[in-house]
Amino acid sequence: MEQVRALVFDVFGTVVDWREGVARDAAPFLERHGRADIDPRAFADAWRRRYQPAMEECRSGRRPFTRLDILHRENLEAVLRDHGLDPAAIAEAELDELNRAWHRLDPWPDTVAGLTRLKARYIIAPLSNGNVALLLNMAKRAGLPWDAILGAEVAQAYKPRPEAYLRTADILGLRPEQVALVAAHNGDLKAARGCGLRTCFVARPREHGPGQTTDLAPSEAWDVVATDFVDLAAKLRC
User: What's the DSSP call for residue 108?
Assistant: First the structure.
């Protein structure tokens, strides 16, 4: 890690708690539309399950690159239909507002303190599948002290496509080995390592709720393994 100059971060699940944030905004929406019987966390999970398949349409070339806000909105309408709600009967402004739940996610308790310490030594930026407006709004609300707002929209590629990692390093004017990805997802780290980036695993054992069974521990010997961002800062002597 001695030559690393920048830390880039997976965001959904690693930096912020997407499940609780989406559920918080979904609960009153569902109640207003007569579906208080739907568990808002299960609704968030169902919305999230459509995330990877939607991006795969772009990764595969079957669809041109499309920003995540648009994919999220399409997925929201599909999830509403799955739950017996007709999105055509709901005001566009209300659908847009719920879609922006992804802009209002809360950071994990250690996130801001850890990022602030890491920023003192490293360039810090998101390497997320989120689009710029989403990541910018999230950062302003949550106080995330990024040096730059990067993401799939900047790289024009969704992880784990190699372009997502390599173009991010290039945009920062750095070689891949001068950049380390921080993520709570082993698959993301594996793809980054395959592109020459350094790797930092931070466990987020409640990303998917109390019954989470994936990414509870590192699957490989990553360059750094930490319990949270504060621990990561300490291990990187920040």
Answer: P
User: Does the pTM exceed 0.90?
Assistant: yes
Whether 151 shows a pLDDT value over 90: the answer reads no
The token pair at 67 is 């920003």
pLDDT in tens, 186-204: 999 999 999 999 999 999 9
Domain of residue 76 covers 18-103
Q: Which residues contact 86 (CB under 8 A, 6 or more apart)?
A: 80
Number of structural domains, the chain? 2
Asked if residue 160 has a cis previous peptide bond (ω within 30° of 0), the answer is: yes
Q: Which amino acid is at 34?
A: G
Dihedral over alpha carbons 50, 53, 54, 59 (to 10 degrees) = 160
Q: Which of residues 69, 103, 137 is at a domain's end?
A: 103
The answer on 122 and 83 residing in a single domain is no
CB 149, CB 168: distance < 8 Å:
no
Q: Which two tokens stand for residue 86?
A: 């007709």
Question: Could you say which of 103, 135, 169 is where a domain stops?
Answer: 103
Note the pLDDT tens digit of each residue in 157-193: 999 999 999 999 999 999 999 999 999 999 999 999 9
Handedness of CA 226, 18, 27, 37 (dihedral sign): negative
CA dihedral for 52, 55, 60, 63, sign (positive or negative): positive
